[in-house]
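User: I'm putting together a teaching handout on how sequence relates to shape, and I'd like one worked example. Could you take Phosphoribosylformylglycinamidine cyclo-ligase from Streptomyces regalis, show the sequence you're using, and then write out its predicted structure as tokens right after it?

Assistant: Happy to. First the sequence, then the structure tokens directly below it.
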Amino acid sequence: MSETAVPGASYAAAGVDIEAGDRAVELMKEWVKKTQRPEVLGGLGGFAGLFDASALKRYERPLLASATDGVGTKVDVARQMGVYDTIGHDLVAMVMDDIVVCGAEPLFMTDYICVGKVHPERVAAIVKGIAEGCVLAGCALVGGETAEHPGLLGADDFDVAGAGTGVVEADRLLGPDRIRKGDAVIAMAASGLHSNGYSLVRHVLLNQAGLALDAQIDELGRTLGEELLEPTKIYSLDCLALTRTTDVHAFSHVTGGGLAANLARVIPDTLHAIVDRTTWTPAPIFDLVGKTGQVELLELEKTLNMGVGMIAIVPEESTEAALATLADRGVDAWVAGEITDRGDHETGAALVGTYSN
């Protein structure tokens, strides 16, 4: 049987617009350029991003730290609102604030944007947000990929992911082995929900309660959509500044799983972190989710950050210096707890008390 070509068959007819992809690359170039560090070689458009590793010669024993993450279902809020230039901040925060936890300096990042249909201006807006986030984290955006998946995603659907690399001197690596009894637990305020728990938040506020994203919510002081799209705070440079001015023992990035679970990841088996809820008041959005959905407090706390985005653990005598450094950088921070011996029935971290009103 002879083979015959299908009349009119083409990549474009299958739903992939190469010209639109090229247009998107041209639009994003100016934003990527703003993230460049002196170690970056070449420009956008190569098959691989190049980073001059000779810059690491100043380290005695450089350890590379890497992380990969996405933004989760927060992208659906951005899609519904037609706002694409903030979600990149969330992506950089999720990746680079994981890297800085071990004391590593963020070096470079790559991104992956998957869309149902390439709308060049939308893709460029997403990359703009990623580039702005990279500037805030002190890293370069050295490359990425935009993939068009017609038939798998709707024309307006998209998702983003990213991977990053950082470096830390081996003898300055932060973590559980540095933590001691009596250390102070310093909390750094979150900018809002950040980028975790949106499946719960969307289910409660949008699906169950039927609230509209453009609804003005008095207790929030803005629309629901504006609150939900508040970009995740990027703490990378603040944490690095802290390591230069104080004796930091460990950091914990509060993401999926909540404050206690993430803090427990950096606590050694013999010690216990106690965090006092009375030391802060969660932002109104957390109360709105809890009351609207009748969500139990412990369920909220294991899903949302409850107003704390990053934790620093420092010696008690370094507390004032640490708080002063963060205050100078405009970071709202406070002593939220301490490190104690671990009891027989205790896990790595626990929240006690009642939130301040």
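A couple of points you could highlight for students: Residues 176-352 form a domain with the Phosphoribosyl-aminoimidazole Synthetase; Chain A, domain 2 fold (CATH 3.90.650.10). The longest helix spans residues 120-137.
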